[in-house]
Amino acid sequence: MRCGISGGLAPETAGLTEHPATRNELPFLGDLRERMETWALRQGPVAAAGYEFLRFGVKQAWACLFGGLLLGLMIVTKRYYPHGAGLPRYDALVIACLIIQAILLWFRMETVEEAKVILVFHLVGTLMELFKTSVGSWHYPEFSHLRIGQVPLFSGFMYASVGSYLARVWRLFDFRFTRHPALSAMMALSGAIYANFFTDHWGIDLRLPLLAGAAMLFGRTTIHFRVWRVHRRMPLLLGFSLVALFIWFGENIATAAGAWLYPSQMTQWTMVSPAKLTSWSLLLLVSYTLVAGTMLEKWRRPTRLGCFLAALAVMGCGLIWRLVPMGLPVFWLRYGGGVLWGAMVLLLAVSIERFGRPSWRSVAAAAAIAFAAELFRLYHQPALDAFRMTLAGALLFGRVFDPWNIAAYWIGIGGAALGRGWFVRARRTGGPLDA
């Protein structure tokens, strides 16, 4: 039997003594928790089961803290935020989310690792938002100053709330697993899922095969979660389905609060189609992979995951470089973005290497991909050219062939390979990065 990050024996064999971690799970309850536990144990098994069920709900609510606060802000500002205020509502939501994030970190209600997860989800979510809003999948009906293209910055926090929940619930329920799939397989599936969110715009929708692949990958996986004294268990796929269902509930509340709107909701709000559950299930798998890799890294230190997360960070830097006005000269704006793009491709190539460090194969593959991507700009087709004129099309495929871009890509690839190699050597020799 393979267990998760906690290792050890099968959770079902745990004794009835209090688990050490339960003392710090719900610190805001203080002595009340201990009195309730004592009372429940004295009253017998029925009272103990009722207390455990109550504890399950409280821990789930505590795990949803960031997302719940964000959803509450959407509802309150929709109802009470003054129209015509100098600060647009969407921008007020951004500022409020930043304040909440600072408070959670300051009072240690959220760990630094969980904050890192939120940042990664910002980058992943913002890139998809740029594409989906450019093709009309949904839109944000209100004006805002803090935005990239058609995407207000608060939208990143909506994706981040999912990552925050997964990281917090993992810690609060002391997750363990049996027959858990390998991280490399999860990363491959997540990459295909993320790509499908883009390709379905051109009629290449593989969500059903991807769902079938997820069922095959996780079909035998069991999750063990500790509510109180012992670990309970259920199929991991069932857990995914339940979380996706509650995200869909939250999506209905958010659209009713005007956070964003689908085309069918433009004239009058209607319930979000249940078909969106498949999309949320797939996106949840991507989210789970990012969070699982972060949680597993404390024990396995997979350098491939580090490269994958570094690629996402470089992707975010590239978006800022291209889209945020910084007064840069045209030369640096154009080719600096190419350098960042080349570094991102190299890091993605390294992330699928066996040992997660640059080799001649990953460097050659990244260089070939960069060369082919630039040559692809010479291919013209009406629908493709129309898409290239949008913001998402320009970011994904570019518009005009420029041989100097190839040089910029290769400089980025070489710089990322050297930097990653130095990082690996520093870790191996006990350099300053081990501190």
Describe the structure.
The chain is mainly alpha-helical. The chain folds into 2 domains: 1-300, no CATH class; 302-430, no CATH class. Helix content is 65%, strand content 4%. It is built from 16 helices and 5 strands. A 3-stranded antiparallel beta sheet has the order 3-4-5. A hairpin with a 4-residue loop joins strand 4 and strand 5. The longest helix is centred in the C-terminal third of the chain and has 26 residues, at 403-428. It is globular. The two termini are 34 Å apart. 33% of the residues are buried. The model is unreliable at 1-23, 298-302 and 429-435 (pLDDT under 50).
Task: Summarize, please.
The protein has 435 residues and is mainly alpha-helical. Helices cover 65% and strands 4% of the residues.
Layout of SSEs?
Blueprint: H1 31-43, H2 45-63, H3 65-80, H4 89-106, H5 112-134, E1 147-148, E2 151-152, H6 155-172, E3 176-178, H7 183-199, H8 207-218, E4 222-226, E5 231-235, H9 236-256, H10 276-300, H11 303-323, H12 330-351, H13 360-375, H14 382-388, H15 391-397, H16 403-428
Antiparallel strand pairs: 1-2, 3-4, 4-5
Helix pairs in contact: 1-2, 2-6, 3-4, 3-6, 5-6, 5-10, 5-11, 6-10, 7-8, 7-10, 8-10, 9-10, 11-12, 12-13, 12-16, 13-16, 14-15
Order of helices and strands: HHHHHEEHEHHEEHHHHHHHH
Q: Helix count?
A: 16
DSSP helix fraction: 55-70%
End-to-end span in angstroms? 34 Å
**Number of strand elements:** 5
- The 3D shape can be described as globular
Mean pLDDT comes to 80
Low-confidence stretches: 1-23, 298-302, 429-435
Main beta sheet, described?
A: 3 strands, antiparallel
